[in-house]
Amino acid sequence: MFENRHKRRSKKSGLPPGSYVFLGEKRQEQIEISLMRYDVSNFEFRMLETIEETFQYKDNKNVTWINIYGLHDTALLKKIETAFGIHPLVLEDVLNTTQRPKIEIFHDYVFSVLKMISFNKENEQISTEQISLILKNNHILCFQERKGDIFHALRERIKNATGRIRKSRADYLAYAIMDVIVDNYFLVLEELAEHIEMLDEEVADDPDPETAQKINGLKHALLMLRKNTWPLREVIHQLVRDENPQFHQETMPFLRDLYDHVLQVIDTTETCREMTNGLMDMYMSMMSNRMNEVMKVLTIIATIFIPLSFLAGVYGMNFDTSISPFNMPELSFKFGYIMFWLFSLAIGAGLLLYFKKKKWL
Question: With 80 as the cut, is the pLDDT of residue 49 above it?
Protein backbone atom coordinates (compact mmCIF):
# COMPACT_ATOMS: atom_id res chain seq x y z
CA MET A 1 0.00 0.00 0.00
CA PHE A 2 2.82 2.38 0.94
CA GLU A 3 4.65 1.61 -2.31
CA ASN A 4 1.53 2.03 -4.46
CA ARG A 5 0.79 5.38 -2.86
CA HIS A 6 4.22 6.70 -3.74
CA LYS A 7 3.96 5.33 -7.26
CA ARG A 8 0.75 7.32 -7.69
CA ARG A 9 2.43 10.42 -6.24
CA SER A 10 5.22 10.10 -8.79
CA LYS A 11 2.69 10.86 -11.56
CA LYS A 12 2.79 14.52 -10.48
CA SER A 13 6.56 14.78 -10.42
CA GLY A 14 7.66 17.91 -12.30
CA LEU A 15 4.15 19.17 -13.05
CA PRO A 16 3.13 22.73 -12.07
CA PRO A 17 0.80 23.38 -9.10
CA GLY A 18 -2.87 23.01 -9.96
CA SER A 19 -2.29 20.23 -12.49
CA TYR A 20 -5.23 17.84 -12.62
CA VAL A 21 -3.78 14.38 -12.04
CA PHE A 22 -5.91 11.69 -10.40
CA LEU A 23 -3.82 10.00 -7.69
CA GLY A 24 -6.36 7.52 -6.37
CA GLU A 25 -7.53 4.09 -7.45
CA LYS A 26 -10.11 4.02 -10.24
CA ARG A 27 -13.11 2.64 -8.35
CA GLN A 28 -15.85 3.43 -10.84
CA GLU A 29 -15.72 3.18 -14.62
CA GLN A 30 -18.21 5.91 -15.43
CA ILE A 31 -18.74 9.21 -13.66
CA GLU A 32 -22.24 9.58 -12.22
CA ILE A 33 -23.82 12.83 -11.11
CA SER A 34 -26.84 13.28 -8.86
CA LEU A 35 -28.64 16.49 -7.99
CA MET A 36 -30.87 17.17 -5.01
CA ARG A 37 -32.60 20.53 -4.72
CA TYR A 38 -35.01 21.56 -1.99
CA ASP A 39 -36.56 24.24 0.16
CA VAL A 40 -39.33 24.15 2.76
CA SER A 41 -42.07 23.18 0.30
CA ASN A 42 -40.26 21.75 -2.74
CA PHE A 43 -38.02 18.75 -3.32
CA GLU A 44 -36.29 17.46 -6.44
CA PHE A 45 -33.87 14.58 -6.95
CA ARG A 46 -32.56 13.26 -10.24
CA MET A 47 -29.55 11.73 -11.92
CA LEU A 48 -27.80 13.89 -14.53
CA GLU A 49 -26.11 12.92 -17.77
CA THR A 50 -23.56 15.77 -17.85
CA ILE A 51 -22.12 18.30 -15.43
CA GLU A 52 -23.41 21.11 -17.67
CA GLU A 53 -26.94 20.33 -16.48
CA THR A 54 -25.99 21.63 -13.02
CA PHE A 55 -24.93 25.04 -14.31
CA GLN A 56 -28.51 26.28 -14.62
CA TYR A 57 -28.83 25.97 -10.83
CA LYS A 58 -25.82 28.15 -9.98
CA ASP A 59 -27.86 31.22 -9.07
CA ASN A 60 -30.82 29.35 -7.64
CA LYS A 61 -31.98 30.24 -4.14
CA ASN A 62 -32.85 26.68 -3.14
CA VAL A 63 -30.34 24.45 -1.38
CA THR A 64 -28.66 22.34 -4.07
CA TRP A 65 -26.63 19.21 -3.31
CA ILE A 66 -24.58 17.98 -6.27
CA ASN A 67 -22.93 14.57 -5.83
CA ILE A 68 -20.17 13.45 -8.22
CA TYR A 69 -19.29 9.74 -8.04
CA GLY A 70 -15.91 8.90 -9.54
CA LEU A 71 -12.92 11.25 -9.77
CA HIS A 72 -10.86 10.07 -12.73
CA ASP A 73 -12.51 12.38 -15.28
CA THR A 74 -10.24 15.44 -15.01
CA ALA A 75 -12.00 17.21 -17.89
CA LEU A 76 -15.19 17.31 -15.80
CA LEU A 77 -13.33 19.00 -12.94
CA LYS A 78 -12.02 21.67 -15.31
CA LYS A 79 -15.62 22.46 -16.24
CA ILE A 80 -16.53 22.75 -12.56
CA GLU A 81 -13.59 25.08 -11.98
CA THR A 82 -14.77 27.41 -14.72
CA ALA A 83 -18.49 27.29 -13.92
CA PHE A 84 -18.37 27.55 -10.13
CA GLY A 85 -15.21 29.61 -9.73
CA ILE A 86 -13.23 27.03 -7.75
CA HIS A 87 -9.47 27.43 -7.33
CA PRO A 88 -7.40 24.87 -9.31
CA LEU A 89 -5.44 23.87 -6.19
CA VAL A 90 -8.72 22.89 -4.50
CA LEU A 91 -9.66 20.56 -7.33
CA GLU A 92 -6.11 19.24 -7.34
CA ASP A 93 -6.68 18.22 -3.71
CA VAL A 94 -9.98 16.60 -4.68
CA LEU A 95 -8.09 14.35 -7.11
CA ASN A 96 -5.48 13.46 -4.48
CA THR A 97 -7.32 10.79 -2.50
CA THR A 98 -4.40 10.36 -0.10
CA GLN A 99 -5.15 13.71 1.56
CA ARG A 100 -5.55 13.87 5.32
CA PRO A 101 -8.76 15.52 6.61
CA LYS A 102 -8.44 19.28 6.33
CA ILE A 103 -10.38 22.49 5.73
CA GLU A 104 -9.64 25.63 3.71
CA ILE A 105 -11.77 28.76 4.04
CA PHE A 106 -11.94 31.11 1.05
CA HIS A 107 -13.78 34.41 0.78
CA ASP A 108 -16.78 32.90 -1.03
CA TYR A 109 -16.64 29.16 -0.31
CA VAL A 110 -15.37 26.56 2.13
CA PHE A 111 -13.49 23.43 1.06
CA SER A 112 -13.09 20.42 3.33
CA VAL A 113 -11.68 16.91 2.97
CA LEU A 114 -13.14 14.13 5.11
CA LYS A 115 -12.71 10.37 5.26
CA MET A 116 -15.61 7.93 5.19
CA ILE A 117 -14.54 4.66 6.81
CA SER A 118 -15.86 1.11 7.04
CA PHE A 119 -14.64 -2.02 8.83
CA ASN A 120 -14.40 -5.30 6.92
CA LYS A 121 -14.92 -8.16 9.37
CA GLU A 122 -13.61 -10.78 6.95
CA ASN A 123 -10.11 -9.39 6.49
CA GLU A 124 -10.27 -7.29 9.70
CA GLN A 125 -9.19 -4.11 7.94
CA ILE A 126 -10.50 -0.57 7.74
CA SER A 127 -11.18 0.82 4.28
CA THR A 128 -11.39 4.56 3.66
CA GLU A 129 -13.00 6.69 1.00
CA GLN A 130 -12.27 10.38 0.57
CA ILE A 131 -15.22 12.78 0.65
CA SER A 132 -14.48 16.30 -0.61
CA LEU A 133 -17.03 19.02 0.13
CA ILE A 134 -17.31 22.51 -1.31
CA LEU A 135 -19.87 24.80 0.31
CA LYS A 136 -20.59 27.86 -1.79
CA ASN A 137 -23.66 29.96 -1.04
CA ASN A 138 -26.64 27.62 -1.49
CA HIS A 139 -24.63 24.84 -3.12
CA ILE A 140 -22.88 21.75 -1.84
CA LEU A 141 -20.48 20.07 -4.26
CA CYS A 142 -19.67 16.58 -2.97
CA PHE A 143 -16.94 14.50 -4.64
CA GLN A 144 -16.80 10.77 -3.88
CA GLU A 145 -14.55 8.00 -5.18
CA ARG A 146 -17.45 5.62 -5.89
CA LYS A 147 -21.20 5.37 -5.75
CA GLY A 148 -22.63 3.95 -2.56
CA ASP A 149 -22.23 5.75 0.74
CA ILE A 150 -23.67 6.23 4.23
CA PHE A 151 -25.94 9.17 3.38
CA HIS A 152 -29.11 7.24 2.56
CA ALA A 153 -30.78 8.13 5.87
CA LEU A 154 -29.85 11.80 5.37
CA ARG A 155 -31.37 11.82 1.90
CA GLU A 156 -34.54 10.25 3.30
CA ARG A 157 -34.73 12.96 5.98
CA ILE A 158 -34.51 15.61 3.28
CA LYS A 159 -37.04 13.86 1.06
CA ASN A 160 -39.55 13.38 3.88
CA ALA A 161 -38.90 16.83 5.40
CA THR A 162 -37.99 15.26 8.73
CA GLY A 163 -36.53 17.61 11.33
CA ARG A 164 -35.21 21.05 10.55
CA ILE A 165 -33.08 20.29 7.52
CA ARG A 166 -35.58 21.47 4.87
CA LYS A 167 -36.00 24.72 6.79
CA SER A 168 -32.27 25.38 7.00
CA ARG A 169 -29.63 26.66 4.61
CA ALA A 170 -26.82 24.87 2.82
CA ASP A 171 -24.42 25.29 5.74
CA TYR A 172 -26.71 23.10 7.85
CA LEU A 173 -26.60 20.46 5.09
CA ALA A 174 -22.79 20.59 5.18
CA TYR A 175 -22.96 20.09 8.94
CA ALA A 176 -25.40 17.18 8.47
CA ILE A 177 -23.04 15.44 6.02
CA MET A 178 -20.14 15.82 8.46
CA ASP A 179 -22.35 14.58 11.30
CA VAL A 180 -23.25 11.41 9.38
CA ILE A 181 -19.57 10.71 8.71
CA VAL A 182 -18.66 11.17 12.39
CA ASP A 183 -21.63 9.06 13.55
CA ASN A 184 -20.40 6.29 11.27
CA TYR A 185 -17.10 6.36 13.18
CA PHE A 186 -19.03 5.34 16.28
CA LEU A 187 -20.52 2.36 14.42
CA VAL A 188 -17.06 1.27 13.28
CA LEU A 189 -15.75 1.64 16.83
CA GLU A 190 -18.58 -0.54 18.12
CA GLU A 191 -17.59 -3.27 15.66
CA LEU A 192 -13.94 -2.92 16.67
CA ALA A 193 -14.90 -3.12 20.36
CA GLU A 194 -16.82 -6.36 19.71
CA HIS A 195 -13.79 -7.68 17.85
CA ILE A 196 -11.57 -6.78 20.79
CA GLU A 197 -13.86 -8.70 23.18
CA MET A 198 -13.75 -11.78 20.94
CA LEU A 199 -9.97 -11.60 20.77
CA ASP A 200 -9.80 -11.17 24.54
CA GLU A 201 -11.70 -14.45 25.00
CA GLU A 202 -9.53 -16.15 22.39
CA VAL A 203 -6.33 -15.01 24.10
CA ALA A 204 -7.60 -16.16 27.50
CA ASP A 205 -8.74 -19.57 26.21
CA ASP A 206 -6.27 -20.86 23.65
CA PRO A 207 -4.00 -18.35 21.90
CA ASP A 208 -2.03 -19.35 18.84
CA PRO A 209 0.13 -17.53 16.23
CA GLU A 210 -3.02 -16.72 14.23
CA THR A 211 -4.31 -14.81 17.27
CA ALA A 212 -1.23 -12.59 17.16
CA GLN A 213 -1.91 -11.84 13.49
CA LYS A 214 -5.49 -10.83 14.34
CA ILE A 215 -4.25 -8.51 17.10
CA ASN A 216 -1.74 -6.90 14.75
CA GLY A 217 -4.48 -6.44 12.14
CA LEU A 218 -6.65 -4.78 14.77
CA LYS A 219 -3.80 -2.48 15.79
CA HIS A 220 -3.36 -1.46 12.16
CA ALA A 221 -7.11 -0.77 11.82
CA LEU A 222 -7.11 1.43 14.92
CA LEU A 223 -4.02 3.25 13.68
CA MET A 224 -5.84 4.03 10.41
CA LEU A 225 -8.85 5.23 12.39
CA ARG A 226 -6.68 7.44 14.59
CA LYS A 227 -4.94 8.86 11.53
CA ASN A 228 -8.29 9.99 10.12
CA THR A 229 -9.94 11.25 13.34
CA TRP A 230 -7.21 13.42 14.85
CA PRO A 231 -7.07 15.88 11.89
CA LEU A 232 -10.88 15.94 11.86
CA ARG A 233 -10.82 17.58 15.28
CA GLU A 234 -8.94 20.56 13.84
CA VAL A 235 -11.32 20.72 10.86
CA ILE A 236 -14.40 21.14 13.06
CA HIS A 237 -12.57 23.35 15.55
CA GLN A 238 -11.55 25.74 12.79
CA LEU A 239 -15.16 26.03 11.64
CA VAL A 240 -16.27 26.82 15.19
CA ARG A 241 -13.37 29.18 15.94
CA ASP A 242 -13.00 31.17 12.72
CA GLU A 243 -15.78 33.31 11.38
CA ASN A 244 -16.67 32.78 7.76
CA PRO A 245 -19.64 33.96 5.69
CA GLN A 246 -20.64 30.45 4.61
CA PHE A 247 -21.51 29.16 8.10
CA HIS A 248 -24.15 31.18 9.92
CA GLN A 249 -24.59 31.64 13.65
CA GLU A 250 -27.65 29.38 13.68
CA THR A 251 -25.43 26.44 12.71
CA MET A 252 -22.68 27.09 15.28
CA PRO A 253 -24.33 25.19 18.18
CA PHE A 254 -24.57 22.12 15.94
CA LEU A 255 -20.92 22.43 14.93
CA ARG A 256 -19.90 22.68 18.60
CA ASP A 257 -21.91 19.53 19.31
CA LEU A 258 -20.19 17.84 16.37
CA TYR A 259 -16.82 18.87 17.81
CA ASP A 260 -17.75 17.11 21.06
CA HIS A 261 -18.63 13.99 19.09
CA VAL A 262 -15.25 14.06 17.37
CA LEU A 263 -13.53 14.28 20.77
CA GLN A 264 -15.55 11.27 21.94
CA VAL A 265 -14.47 9.34 18.84
CA ILE A 266 -10.83 10.19 19.54
CA ASP A 267 -11.12 9.17 23.21
CA THR A 268 -12.81 5.89 22.30
CA THR A 269 -10.17 5.19 19.65
CA GLU A 270 -7.38 5.73 22.18
CA THR A 271 -9.15 3.46 24.67
CA CYS A 272 -9.45 0.72 22.03
CA ARG A 273 -5.78 1.11 21.16
CA GLU A 274 -4.80 0.70 24.81
CA MET A 275 -7.00 -2.38 25.09
CA THR A 276 -5.42 -3.83 21.95
CA ASN A 277 -1.92 -3.19 23.30
CA GLY A 278 -3.04 -4.90 26.49
CA LEU A 279 -4.24 -7.86 24.41
CA MET A 280 -0.80 -8.20 22.84
CA ASP A 281 0.86 -8.05 26.26
CA MET A 282 -1.60 -10.66 27.53
CA TYR A 283 -0.91 -12.85 24.49
CA MET A 284 2.85 -12.66 25.04
CA SER A 285 2.36 -13.44 28.73
CA MET A 286 0.15 -16.45 27.93
CA MET A 287 2.66 -17.78 25.41
CA SER A 288 5.48 -17.25 27.90
CA ASN A 289 3.54 -19.09 30.61
CA ARG A 290 2.82 -21.92 28.19
CA MET A 291 6.52 -22.15 27.36
CA ASN A 292 7.38 -22.10 31.07
CA GLU A 293 4.98 -25.00 31.67
CA VAL A 294 6.59 -26.98 28.89
CA MET A 295 10.08 -26.24 30.21
CA LYS A 296 8.99 -27.16 33.73
CA VAL A 297 7.70 -30.56 32.61
CA LEU A 298 10.82 -31.23 30.58
CA THR A 299 13.04 -30.19 33.49
CA ILE A 300 11.18 -32.48 35.91
CA ILE A 301 11.48 -35.40 33.50
CA ALA A 302 15.20 -34.73 33.07
CA THR A 303 15.67 -34.40 36.85
CA ILE A 304 13.95 -37.73 37.49
CA PHE A 305 16.13 -39.49 34.96
CA ILE A 306 19.42 -38.08 36.31
CA PRO A 307 19.72 -40.62 39.23
CA LEU A 308 18.28 -43.37 37.03
CA SER A 309 20.89 -42.66 34.38
CA PHE A 310 23.56 -42.76 37.10
CA LEU A 311 22.43 -46.17 38.29
CA ALA A 312 22.13 -47.49 34.75
CA GLY A 313 25.63 -46.22 34.06
CA VAL A 314 27.12 -47.87 37.13
CA TYR A 315 25.53 -51.25 36.52
CA GLY A 316 26.15 -51.03 32.82
CA MET A 317 29.95 -51.24 33.29
CA ASN A 318 29.70 -55.07 33.03
CA PHE A 319 32.64 -56.02 35.30
CA ASP A 320 33.51 -59.70 35.07
CA THR A 321 33.46 -60.89 38.70
CA SER A 322 35.43 -64.04 37.87
CA ILE A 323 38.44 -61.96 36.80
CA SER A 324 38.40 -58.81 38.86
CA PRO A 325 39.02 -59.12 42.61
CA PHE A 326 37.01 -55.91 43.10
CA ASN A 327 33.76 -57.39 41.94
CA MET A 328 30.29 -55.90 42.08
CA PRO A 329 28.37 -58.23 44.40
CA GLU A 330 24.98 -57.02 43.18
CA LEU A 331 25.68 -58.52 39.74
CA SER A 332 25.64 -62.00 41.19
CA PHE A 333 22.35 -61.62 43.05
CA LYS A 334 19.59 -63.85 41.82
CA PHE A 335 17.01 -61.00 41.96
CA GLY A 336 19.45 -58.17 41.16
CA TYR A 337 17.60 -57.12 37.98
CA ILE A 338 14.27 -56.90 39.77
CA MET A 339 15.85 -55.06 42.71
CA PHE A 340 17.40 -52.55 40.29
CA TRP A 341 14.03 -51.73 38.75
CA LEU A 342 12.29 -51.53 42.11
CA PHE A 343 14.96 -49.17 43.37
CA SER A 344 14.73 -47.03 40.21
CA LEU A 345 10.94 -46.80 40.43
CA ALA A 346 11.20 -45.87 44.10
CA ILE A 347 13.59 -43.03 43.27
CA GLY A 348 11.28 -41.75 40.50
CA ALA A 349 8.19 -41.90 42.73
CA GLY A 350 10.07 -40.24 45.58
CA LEU A 351 11.15 -37.35 43.33
CA LEU A 352 7.59 -36.90 42.04
CA LEU A 353 6.25 -36.73 45.60
CA TYR A 354 8.95 -34.24 46.51
CA PHE A 355 8.11 -32.01 43.51
CA LYS A 356 4.42 -32.15 44.39
CA LYS A 357 5.12 -31.21 47.99
CA LYS A 358 7.12 -28.22 46.76
CA LYS A 359 4.20 -27.37 44.42
CA TRP A 360 6.37 -27.58 41.37
CA LEU A 361 3.75 -29.83 39.79
Answer: yes
Q: Which helix (H) or strand (E) holds 140?
A: strand 139-144
Q: Are 252 and 240 in contact (CB under 8 A)?
A: yes
Nearest-CA neighbor of 173 among 155, 152, 150, 160?
Answer: 155
Distance CA 258, CA 303 (A): 67
Bridge partners of residue 112, in order along the sequence: 103, 133
Please compute Rg for the chain using Cα positions: 35
CATH of region 2-286, choose from 3.30.460.20, 3.40.640.10, 3.30.420.10, 3.40.1010.10:
3.30.460.20
Residue 16 CB-density burial (10 A; 0-12 exposed, 13-18 middle, 19+ buried) = exposed
pTM greater than 0.70: yes
DSSP secondary structure letter of residue 100: P
> Are 22 and 31 a contacting pair, CB within 8 Å?
no
Q: CB under 8 Å to 186, separation ≥6 — which residues?
A: 261, 264, 265, 268
Residues 47 and 67: their CA atoms lie apart, in Å, by: 9
Q: What is the pLDDT of residues 237-254, one digit of tens each?
A: 998 888 888 898 999 999
Domain ranges for the chain? 2-286, 293-357
